Amino acid sequence: xxxxxxxxxxxxxxxxxxxxxxxxxxxxxxxxxxxxxxxxxxxxxxxxxxxxxxxxxxxxxxxxxxxxxxxxxxxxxxxxxxxxxxxxxxxxxxxxxxxxxxxxxxxxxxxxxxxxxxxxxxxxxxxxxxxxxxxxxxxxxxxxxxxxxxxxxxxxxxxxxxxxxxxxxxxxxxxxxxxxxxxxxxxxxxxxxxxxxxxxxxxxxxxxxxxxxxxxxxxxxxxxxxxxxxxxxxxxxxxxxxxxxxxxxxxxxxxxxxxxxxxxxxxxxxxxxxxxxxxxxxxxxxxxxxxxxxxxxxxxxxxxxxxxxxxxxxxxxxxxxxxxxxxxxxxxxxxxxxxxxxxxxxxxxxxxxxxxxxxxxxxxxxxxxxxxxxxxxxxxxxxxxxxxxxxxxxxxxxxxxxxxxx
Length: 406
Ligand code: PLP
What we know:
The protein has 15 helices and 17 strands.
């Protein structure tokens, strides 16, 4: 099957609107992606015709909602190559997933002096939960830096592990530079050392096919809103052995089997980790988004985006007054850049006047910004519906910025 970017664009209603009198050029997919009509329609349909709470009722609507909601577990398992859908826990996104692993798996097991190895590229969602353990129980965070191209050497990650390392937590793809990490090599080496690996798949799962069974990770977190699904949806694959080691995360309805005045017994996983009324419609919407992606084929999407990356890289490299951070050869189509004389916020504002949406700031990755010696960058992050014509529009607008600020 070939990838028809025009047909894909036609599936996204928002892409035909204008911003400031110019066609929208949406290059902020790293922050959140737009939604195809199938997702919007599916969610509207649930609200209009099928909505009820899940797991609770014996009435028709509750059964429909429960069936649709629970059906998403299998879709996520297929999308991630997870052996068993019971290894999938629904979350509101990656932030909740990593906090869950920190609180339910790591906190009860780690003691003062135990270590967690992180890369310098991590998003705050994969840093702050570990700082909680540092502050509360003396866990030590060990950092592994990237090289001059922005690459992370799996051997350096493994070399940072000592006898007290209890977890490696690493992103598969940097939201700032687009660097792709060889997480399989890290998992292979970590398995030999008996160290579990958490992979932050927030960005990785959007841009390449993922198979957690082949990867060999213990935890793999995704967030629905970057996968062309709704905000407030997400999931985490948790290897069964790790799940059995986890205490419940939040307490409330659905995650219990029995509650008395004196005691409580818990539901079986994965429901043990899903307290309260979940994001029913969001999760159903995420399932539709993942089906849509699988219908297009993640390999086809990745190939289209590799073409965009190469085209954008050649164009941006030609702007010798633009400093692009992270030149890793196999990176995704995510470009963070600075321009002497212009703050990233100014670049973003001028680009917005031309209908171009980029993100500016520290991208929730302050340790990486410090490592790269910058306080803020502007970031153009491409998605599957972007085109070479949009790269040209970005380059034209940057040339205008250079005239304005240079
Ligand atoms: N990890 C990475 C690499 C991200 O890019 C993001 C979002 O920007 C997150 C984690 C957090 O995702 P969410 O805010 O959807 O939980």
